[in-house]
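Recap from last week: sequence in, structure out.
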Amino acid sequence: MIILLGRFWKRATWQGGVAALASAAIVSLVVIFVPGQAKFWARPIIPATLAGLIAEVVVSLLTPPNKRSFQEVAAAMTRERLAIDGKNQTEFGEDGVE
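Predicted structure tokens:
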């Protein structure tokens, strides 16, 4: 759910993604280790997913929107990766060995 919101909801922010990850993990642990919750839910997937979804939406709306589009971020990451690969190839040769 976190990845889908981050990819397709233009208002999603990285802070919302981190909040979703943290809240989903915490809710999962609560459901697993609190006896009453474990009996009611049986598995933590539904409450953890709902908590992550709510956390991502709320935190994303409370933080400033991203200034760069997904395509701009992807292009920057590709340039950085190529720069790293190019540096490794010139330092270590074509096979990556000194």
